[in-house]
Amino acid sequence: MNKWSTLAITGTAALASVFAYSGTASAANGVCAVQESCYYYNSDTSGSMIDYEGDQYTHHDDYFISAGSGQNQVVGNNAASLFCNMGPLFTCQTYYNSGWAGDSIKTLGGKRVNLPSWLKNNNASSKFYYSGGCSGPGC
């Protein structure tokens, strides 16, 4: 094997390990940490939960992961409540459709809410952002 082949293999392996690490750094772990939005299978932030560190284009590829009722169920169209575990200047927004489309509600950071009846078990995507404080429904 020549030195260029060895360098290419070494470089590819190093790059793969960087991507593997960055992928797992933001992976859900079933613990609702600060700066995460956490969706629950049951009302009153109970049952199984999934924690998100960032925007979710769709909830249909994710599963509730913590112990409790609903564990291993798809998050899309199955969430009943939310804990927006952010500071009060941040807002979590939950959408009816994937791709951040359709009707939505905004939840101020630090709040635990039951999703309204029209959105309960009809959630499909979510975002969170710095808002300077929320003034919409759910705040």
TrEMBL record:
<keyword id="KW-0732">Signal</keyword>
<feature type="signal peptide">
    <location>
        <begin position="1"/>
        <end position="27"/>
    </location>
</feature>
<protein>
    <recommendedName>
        <fullName>Peptidase inhibitor family I36</fullName>
    </recommendedName>
</protein>
